[in-house]
Amino acid sequence: MMTTFLFRWIINAIAFMAIAMIVPGFEVTSFGYALLAAFILGLVNAFVRPLLFILTLPVTIITLGLFVFVLNAFMLWIVSSVIDGFDVRGFVPALLAAMLLWLVGWGTNVVIVLSIGGSLVVPPEGIDVLFLKSLRTLLLHEIKKGKKFAVVVGGGSVCRKYQQAAGEIGTLTRDDLDWLGIHATRLNGHLLRTIFRGIAHPRVFKNPHQVPQKSAYPLLVAAGWKPGWSTDYVAVCLAKRLGASQVFNFSNIDYVYTADPRKDPSAKALPEMTWKEYQALIGGEWKPGMNAPFDPIASRLAARAGIEVAILNGKNIANVKACFQRKKFVGTRIAL
């Protein structure tokens, strides 16, 4: 959380310098004064915002948003009265600066949504500790640069072993199969949350619609929700709720292929696809334990929401970094 505060401090100071160039009546004579003002503003927000949020819970979202603009403008105006080189001449320039500062914050607060295949975490031979260590190192590195993550994890071989064992003993319904898979994802979710202790939200979220849209934690973990919906579906729900335009799907394959390359040597890799093409390839029905690159129900939701999905091999960490940085990567990009 300290890293997030420092990142926001620097970003706000830079924003103050930029605002001073375009807002009449808003003057900052040096970057040092901008840093000082941003630091004071950050401290005030850290201590005052939680109390104000509790006091204003009954207020509508629109009114609360306007209230926050006015509050920030007032704080900028107060800060200008105690720092000689930070000058705000009137409340209107302060209000305009507060709005621009909010836009800067919104643009730098985008959450990266990851849907991690359970087979990466728990392959048939057991928990892949080396993969988890690599994943932890990668995400910690990206978090230090100011990024935030929402991670959803599948059930992997834990799910399939429980489903197989139960099926050998009794007759299972689709709901039975789904619930066994859902609880396997929750166990894997707790494993991920544990290895990110200290920076991850302490709760593993089951319902994606209850995930906080703003959080002091740079990483949160979610798992399966209810029968009929895979963790891919949960990931798309998270992307919609958190304002992310893309979901990164970590699998154990390099691409989506025209057929299963393990069974068909002539299968071709598909680097780019539309949602219509992808849906025609995998069909439209979800089955418990289904092993598709991205499940059909989640695909329909992503297509309707205009959300892009990148499918890539999660074990190729260098390739994952390139994908995060919007560089050329090995994998399949699915979009409208």
Number of strands: 12
Task: Specify Rg, calculated over alpha carbons.
Answer: 23 Å
Question: Sheet with the most strands?
Answer: 8 strands, mixed
Order of strands in the sheet with the most strands? Answer: 5-6-4-3-7-11-12-10
- First-to-last CA distance: 36 Å
CATH C-level of the largest domain: Alpha Beta
Superfamily (CATH H level) name of the largest domain: Acetylglutamate kinase-like
Mean pLDDT: 84
Low-confidence stretches: 52-64
Strand content bin: 15-25%
Principal-axes geometry comes out as elongated
CATH topology call of the largest domain: Carbamate kinase
- How many domains comprise the coordinates? 2
* Helix content, binned percent: 40-55%
GO biological process, one term: pyrimidine nucleotide biosynthetic process
Domain Aspartate/glutamate/uridylate kinase: 111-313
Protein name: Aspartate/glutamate/uridylate kinase
Pfam families: AA_kinase, Phage_holin_4_2
Comma- or semicolon-separated keywords:
Aspartate/glutamate/uridylate kinase; Carbamate kinase; 336 residues; 12 helices; AceGlu_kinase-like_sf; elongated
